[in-house]
UniProtKB/TrEMBL annotation:
It is a multi-pass membrane protein. This is NADH-ubiquinone oxidoreductase chain 1. The lineage of its organism: Eukaryota, Metazoa, Spiralia, Lophotrochozoa, Mollusca. PANTHER family: NADH DEHYDROGENASE SUBUNIT 1, NADH-UBIQUINONE OXIDOREDUCTASE CHAIN 1. It catalyses: a ubiquinone + NADH + 5 H(+)(in) = a ubiquinol + NAD(+) + 4 H(+)(out).
Amino acid sequence: MSSIITCLCVLLSVAFYTLLERKVLGYIQIRKGPKMVGFWGIIQPFSDAIKLFVKEKIILHGSNQFLFYFAPFMGFFLAMFIWFLYPSNFCVKFICWGMLVFFCVSAMNVYAIMLAGWTSNSKYAFLGALRAAAQTISYEVSLLLILLFPIFTISELSMDMYMLFPVFIIFIPLILTWFTSSLAETNRAPFDFAEGESELVSGFNIEYGGGGFAMLFLAEYANILFMSMITVILFSFSSNFCVMVLQSLLVSMFFLFARGAFPRHRYDLLMNICWKSFLPFSMCTLMLIMIFVNN
């Protein structure tokens, strides 16, 4: 029952987060955003969900049909599964290896994107999948090295313990590095090269419509909200669950502000930032913390 409630809460959060995104981007661009379906457009996410899931299913000739339909389900399942790691004062389970599970599950997300692009039998989808794979694998390295900083500091792999020991606050530059890596890891603007509409015609999900597209969409936004929650766990001083939820909403707003404020980056510059800037920086911070821990 706890797992079902968690999934329902995540789905509702994703639905209203998409409405919030459209409203924020609308006001950034001096327009209103959704406002016709229900009061202040509040029913718009449910209207979009019904429209997507009742659309006619299109079977692509030349595609690997089983894996083509399996890829969105895999991405959606991984996005829901990773949310079972969230720490809470009301949680009925305790996962002592939460960080290790987070490493494993987040690394598997790239397989869902690669399958979605490869099985579509479309060159645009395959190019988008290759871009996403290279980008995700690259920034997973910097994310893992940054997360090793608190792991070695408090010698704990459970996410519940990080609510009591927010060690990142002692090294402020890691906050910007972590947030930028989170943007690239979740394929969000200005690093959304897996979905470059101008050159890839929407990227790896171009051949998906209806329910398949909706599941890929839900997986992406569920991962954004989870990365916002992880950011709060590592940076926040509060161990109160309600305060953590409000702070997670605030962090998720920065994902929207980054999309509205910055133009799309160049792909080669994005890879250079990871391998020539973030990776050496995270390795240096890891060496520093190892020196302090050993002393």
